[in-house]
Specification:
The complex is a heterodimer of chains A (113) and B (116).
Chain A lengths: L3 E4 L2 E4 L5 E7 L5 E8 L3 E10 L2 E4 L6 E4 L5 E6 L8 E8 L8 E2 L3 E5 L1
Parallel strand pairs in A: 2-11
Antiparallel strand pairs in A: 1-3, 3-8, 4-5, 4-9, 5-6, 7-8, 9-10, 9-11
Chain B lengths: L3 E2 L4 E5 L4 E7 L4 E9 L5 E8 L4 E4 L2 E6 L4 E6 L8 E9 L10 E2 L3 E6 L1
Parallel strand pairs in B: 2-11
Antiparallel strand pairs in B: 1-3, 3-8, 4-5, 4-9, 6-7, 7-8, 9-10, 9-11
The chains are: A mainly beta (113), B mainly beta (116).
């Protein structure tokens, strides 16, 4: 049982490049989330999913797209990276039976130059 | 819009001391409040959860209190240890929460350092 894993752990992009962050969970959780964490801002929700094939916008969705083709995976895409997207990205998941037991991944540190 | 504030942003105390971390929120219509711990390079780990009807919750050396009407919560750590060094975040859920956490609002965190 690996919990929530994120790939990659670190990445440096140039402005305009694209990339996909992968989140995987092996707990059969229905809900999955992508957050970003910036200094002095706390965690902010980018997108979330309440089940396979469904996604929804969070607080700061602009510049990001997501997909949940399989229940265990939640992908976060940056089509054209901007320096403002330099941040640490966290994935999280939970089951609807225990909403307060959230499991977080270790994070991906992304730098856009 | 709910805003959650944690002051101070950083705190250093000698080992063995008791300490209090503060969390304040602007909208008192919350369902519950949760305290998390974040270690460098790692994700968040839930420490305590207080329902809006409760006044406090305890787990080992940790005690969290909630004053919903004044929009405040505190996390009390007794007999601090170097292993307690981490960033502590609080987060609130609104009254109309459902089974997910998409409406969770996080504070900015307090970075705690326990000096041996």
């Amino acid at each position: 049982n690996a919990g929530v894993t994120q790939t990659p752990k670190f990445r440096v992009l140039k402005t305009g490049q694209s990339m996909t962050l992968l989140c995987a969970q092996d707990m059969n959780h229905e809900y999955m989330y992508w957050y970003r964490q910036d200094p002095g801002m706390g965690l902010r929700l980018i997108h979330y999913s309440v089940g396979e094939g469904t996604t929804a916008k969070g607080e700061v969705p602009d510049g990001y797209n997501v997909s949940r083709l399989k229940k265990q995976n939640f992908l976060l895409g940056l089509e054209s990276a901007a320096p403002s997207q330099t941040s640490v990205y966290f994935c999280a998941s939970n089951t609807f039976r225990k909403a307060y037991e959230q499991y977080f991944g270790p994070g991906t540190r992304l730098t856009v130059t | 819009k709910q805003e959650v504030t944690q002051i101070p942003a950083a705190l250093s105390v000698p080992e063995g001391e008791n300490l209090v971390l503060n969390c304040s929120f602007t909208d008192s219509a919350i369902y519950n409040l949760q305290w998390f711990r974040q270690d460098p390079g790692k994700g968040l780990t839930s420490l305590l959860l207080i329902q809006s009807s409760q006044r406090e919750q305890t787990s080992g050396r940790l005690n969290a209190s909630l004053d919903k009407s004044s929009g405040r919560s505190t996390l009390y750590i007794a007999a601090s240890q170097p292993g307690d060094s981490a960033t502590y975040l609080c987060a609130v859920r609104p009254d109309d929460t459902n089974f997910g956490n998409e409406k969770l609002t996080f504070g900015t965190g307090t970075r705690l350092t326990i000096i041996p």
